Amino acid sequence: MEPMEQWRAGTGDWKYFNIPLEHVFEIAAGWKTILGDVEKPWLCWNVNPRWSILQQKLVLAVGWTPIVGFDPRVGAPPLVEGSILIDFNEKLQLPVLWPHFPLEFVFLFADRLAFWHSDLLCRLSVMRRLAVQFASLQDGQMSAVFDRGGLRRRLKVKMHRFWELCGCTTKSASENQFYNGAGWWRHLEHHPKCALEEERTRRSSYDYDHGVGILYWKKKYNGHVIPIDIKLVKEGHCTETRNKAYRILPNHFNPMRNLRSEIDINFSVDEITALLGIAHLL
User: Fold this and answer.
1) Phi and psi for 266 in degrees, rounded to 5?
2) Would the pTM count as exceeding 0.70?
C-alpha cells in the first residue's frame, strides 16, 4: 500500500483495508483469551495517558471493567488497578490504530462491549445512567449516539449515522452487522460481505463515514439500536466543535492527527473535571 493508505488501514476503512480476514479472526481469538470471563468490559482507547487514567477510574466507579487499548504512536498508559490492557496492534503492526478497528469485530472476542471516545468525560450520574442502560441490553441489541450532523446535514438523511462517541454493542448485534456488511467502518460499499454490484451501487450513495453502516443496518436489516441522546454526554466531549478557539495541529484532517497534543493545548483537564464534578478522580 501507499504510505497514506497504510495509515488509513488502521482507522477502520474498508476502502483501504487489505489484511486477510482469516488473519484478523486469528488475532481476535487472542483478544478473547486476554478478556477472559469479564462480564462488563468497557473499551477505553488511550491517546493521552492522563485522560485515559480518568476514563479508567470513571468506568471502574460504575462497576464495569476498563479494557485499555491504545494508539501505537502513543503507547499504553498507566493502568488503574482493575483495568485490563490489550495491545490490539501487537500482531497487526499498523502505523496507527483507532478503536473502530476492534469495534468491527466485537463478536469475535466479547459478549458485550461498551465504548467511548478518548476525549469524552462524564459526570458520575451520567456514567451510572449509561452503565445501567448498557447492562440491560439483550443479545442482538446495541446502543449508540444518533448523529444528524449540523444544520446543513439535517435534511440529508444519507449522511446521518450512529456515532461511536459512546455506546455498547452485543455479540449477536456485532455478528449480524458484520455478515450483512453494515458495521462501524467507513465506506460500507467496500465491505467484503457486500458482494452484489447492485448493493454496492446502492450503498455508494450514502456518506462514507464511521457509523453510517450502523444506521444502514438498522434501516435495511431491522437492526435494534437504542439511541443515546447527544445532550446527555456532550457536556464532557472535549472536541473542536465545543471550543471556538480550538487550535489545530498539522495532519488534523488526516489519519496522522496528533490527538494527544491537540487535547492538551485546547482543554484543561482540571477545568473539565471541576465542571463535571469529578475532580476528586485526578
Assistant:
1) -110, -20
2) yes
